[in-house]
Amino acid sequence: MFTATHLHAMIVHFPVALVLVAFVSELIGLIFKKQFYLQVSFYIIVLAGLGAVAAYLTGDAAGDGMDGGSLQRALEAHEESAAFTLWLTMAAAGVKIVLYYIKNEMRWLKILAFTLLFAAAGSVARTGYLGGQLVFKHAAGVELGIGNFDTLQNDEEDD
């Protein structure tokens, strides 16, 4: 059965990777003074921002109904971290868009864009860690499928 949990798992990896690649591209562009990498970073962080919105919305839907105990606390920590990551990513994309359209080399805006991108990369790593804890420590979204085990066991007995 296809659920919000499945959709979130399929979508979330794209903005995670895109934020990290945008940061690395920005870093390479600044270190080697290559405009190409700064432009790549612009396009990638805009895509990451759009993907982050989709990941956040699907994650919010996937978390509905998961409450109580340590799972609830872990889910809340992941959700808070995801919201912070979303805002950092959107802010970084916004500053990069401003830089793109004003076509002005304002140093303070470049520093702000880099700082936001750096923070978003760190925040996405933390959010991913907390999401991994949800799945691997708390088994959030894991379907045991006991009925499938009985079918498998019967098939083995037939052999």
From TrEMBL:
<feature type="transmembrane region" description="Helical">
    <location>
        <begin position="36"/>
        <end position="57"/>
    </location>
</feature>
<feature type="transmembrane region" description="Helical">
    <location>
        <begin position="82"/>
        <end position="102"/>
    </location>
</feature>
<feature type="transmembrane region" description="Helical">
    <location>
        <begin position="109"/>
        <end position="129"/>
    </location>
</feature>
<dbReference type="InterPro" id="IPR019251">
    <property type="entry name" value="DUF2231_TM"/>
</dbReference>
<keyword id="KW-0472">Membrane</keyword>
<keyword id="KW-0812">Transmembrane</keyword>
<feature type="domain" description="DUF2231">
    <location>
        <begin position="7"/>
        <end position="142"/>
    </location>
</feature>
<protein>
    <recommendedName>
        <fullName>DUF2231 domain-containing protein</fullName>
    </recommendedName>
</protein>
<feature type="transmembrane region" description="Helical">
    <location>
        <begin position="6"/>
        <end position="24"/>
    </location>
</feature>
<keyword id="KW-1133">Transmembrane helix</keyword>
<dbReference type="Pfam" id="PF09990">
    <property type="entry name" value="DUF2231"/>
</dbReference>
